[in-house]
C-alpha cells in the first residue's frame, strides 16, 4: 500500500528537478519517484494545515532511537541550520514533504535507512 503525498505544483516541480540533478541515493530516488507518481497536486493555498510543505514547523520522531527533533521547513535559499531552519531539499525535508501529521516513513540518511513518524505539523504563514 502506498500513501499518496500532497504537494503544491511548485514543490512537485522542485522535487522532479532534484531527481534530475541526481542529488539522491538510489534508495531515496526510487522512493521519491514512486511517491511523485502517486502524489496529489493541489494549489498551495489548498494544502491541509497538517501536511509538511514549505514554511511549516515539524516535530518528528526517529522510531528506533525515540529521538525527537523539530525543524522549520523553508525554501533552499532561506535554510539556516543554527535556527533549525532546514531546506525542503535537505534529506529530512525531502523525506517528509507531502506527508501529514501521524504519517510514518522510511528514508535513507547518511547513517543508513531510518524510520520516522511525523508527530506534529504547524503552518507558519
Automatic annotation (TrEMBL):
InterPro entries: GreA/GreB_C_sf, Tscrpt_elong_fac_GreA/B_C, Tscrpt_elong_fac_GreA/B_fam. One of its GO terms (molecular function) is DNA binding. GO terms for biological process: DNA-templated transcription elongation; regulation of DNA-templated transcription elongation. The lineage of its organism: Bacteria, Pseudomonadati, Bacteroidota, Sphingobacteriia, Sphingobacteriales. This is Regulator of nucleoside diphosphate kinase. Keywords: Kinase, Transferase. It holds the Pfam family GreA_GreB. Residues 48-122 form the Transcription elongation factor GreA/GreB C-terminal domain.
